[in-house]
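Write out the bound-state structure for NAP.
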Amino acid sequence: MADLRLNEMKLGIGTWSWGDTLYWGYGKGYQEEDLKRVFHYCLEKGITFFDTAEIYGQGRSETFLGKFSQGINQSLYIASKFMPFPWRLNNKQLDRALEKSLQRLQRDALQLYQIHMPLPPLSVESWMEAMIRVHEAGLIEQIGVSNYSVEKMQKAQAVLLREGIGLATNQVEYHLLNRRIEKNGLMVAAKDSGIRIIAYSPLAMGVLSGKYNEETPPSGFRGRKYNRQFLHQIKPLLLEMGRIGVKYDGKSIAQVAINWVIAKGAIPIPGVKNLEQAQQNIEAANWTLSDSDIAILDALSDKVLEQ
Ligand SMILES: NC(=O)c1ccc[n+]([C@@H]2O[C@H](COP(=O)([O-])OP(=O)(O)OC[C@H]3O[C@@H](n4cnc5c(N)ncnc54)[C@H](OP(=O)(O)O)[C@@H]3O)[C@@H](O)[C@H]2O)c1
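---
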């Protein structure tokens, strides 16, 4: 049965960093105890949507979610992802990967299962056929894709519709520093087909919190993606976000960034490492930017992106 809760959800929580040492430095600055606190705080605030993937922290993100959710009586909306690695040459490997994800998550079924990205050699159609199989077996409630273009998304949707199943979601990068989906037709195509957009990296990996700048850029892979020159370029946008936030009872730059995504009709899934970030990010959904402030942010973001 389709889970209609997704339509009512304003925000979910991204858990890529939960247990990931390579990219996010799990174990240095945040530990399992911080994540457990985040998880229970989210439930307290009515946030039940958690996005994970078999590859996050090499399975540790799913394992944490499974562990933390033992004994709770709230119904969760858990979204995980299957990675179609090029060496996965048979679509039955999706069934096996799902079984392992469910074991780590300690659940009988997932609310949403997504193909992480459209990698060759197996076709979009072949993975959708596998999705239909596990859907019919009652192991997943809804089917999603991630990083799919308009064309691939429509291909996936067509296969599912033949069986009377709708494609529920397409999870893509979307924030004030990346508005590709507004320009390449994906956002409109998804809306027209009743497919929800889940916006990943809504804070541009922390850059849209305003805490990184030319003097203190982020380290590691984030520093390569968002270098000093880029951080210099986005200064006017961050300044304006700060000014706008003040007008709404002192909202932070991060809260403005997340609220902007919601205003555009997508579901942001900000990543959080500790209670403070969870408190701020969840609070970002409980107010609304005015149309004129959205227009100001759009114009400024267009300007930085064009430079
Ligand atoms: N489908 C895909 O291919 C794909 C790709 C990427 C992400 N995702 C999903 O999207 C989720 C979110 O994306 P993301 O984690 O890449 O980036 P994000 O949500 O844009 O940024 C998250 C990072 O920003 C910092 N942060 C979070 N809240 C903050 C706040 N209030 N103030 C200051 N800093 C804050 C934290 O890192 P620091 O404290 O270290 O700065 C946090 O780990 C992931 O967890 C994952 O579930 C999916």
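---
The chain has a mean pLDDT of 96.
The chain has one domain: 5-213+250-289.
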